[in-house]
């Protein structure tokens, strides 16, 4: 069975349109119709219900789609295993966040360059929420974020997870005793952008101990550099991944706080759209997984210019 026809089934089901699938696959609508007709004839079932505005999968089409996705994915993985690195070339857009930039992104980019010298990376650094939106809008090919992205046709790979710690400037003199959250919210809390996973976790932790989040002065920023600068200046406290603040703690610019209660780990994912016609995001996603694993095995790198 022609895997190109199976790929056509996948894109028609995702885009709910023969014409849009033709544009995506750089062919004609007639060619798309012929491929689907051939599949329906070979399989002996009707795959799509058609009307004037859109197409939708039949129950048989739903079952066929799951098999088609598995076959196309395995075919892509076979191609990846046989690729010569000197034949891989192109441009891939990667969206990521500050926490990953300061943790292991330089090592990842260096690995990409040394492994695939003819691959160029366009890098965007923003919040996880914004990078997720860019991924769904097709503006980035690979997202390295605090995910996942729960949308049909996207694959999420576990990258890494980091413990988070409450930190403050030594000058506040609040690190010498155990604190409850009710004591902590007497100080401004610096957090990532409103609606982000870390921001929501701070709100949830406050609510879990029966406090009103409205009582807390939570100041949000999409810049990790801004947050760490404000906290180092003694303007408040923050809950941050330990990988981000390790060097600042070692340099005694920040201290960890003994705050009563568990702190959830922060989980990161590599997210890309499963597109058999574009193997670069798949290649780089696996390289990101490997880079994150090496960082956690070898320990945290030094971080500068925060």
UniProtKB/TrEMBL annotation:
PROSITE patterns: HTH_LYSR
Example GO molecular function: DNA-binding transcription factor activity
UniProt-listed InterPro entries: LysR_HTH_N, LysR_subst-bd, WH-like_DNA-bd_sf, WH_DNA-bd_sf
Domain HTH lysR-type: 1-58
Record carries keyword Lipid biosynthesis: no
Gene3D superfamilies per record: Periplasmic binding protein-like II (3.40.190.10), Winged helix-like DNA-binding domain superfamily/Winged helix DNA-binding domain (1.10.10.10)
Keywords attached to this entry: DNA-binding, Transcription, Transcription regulation
Pfam families documented for this protein: HTH_1, LysR_substrate
Entry similarity comment: Belongs to the LysR transcriptional regulatory family.
Name of the protein described by the UniProt record: HTH lysR-type domain-containing protein
Organism: Aureimonas ureilytica
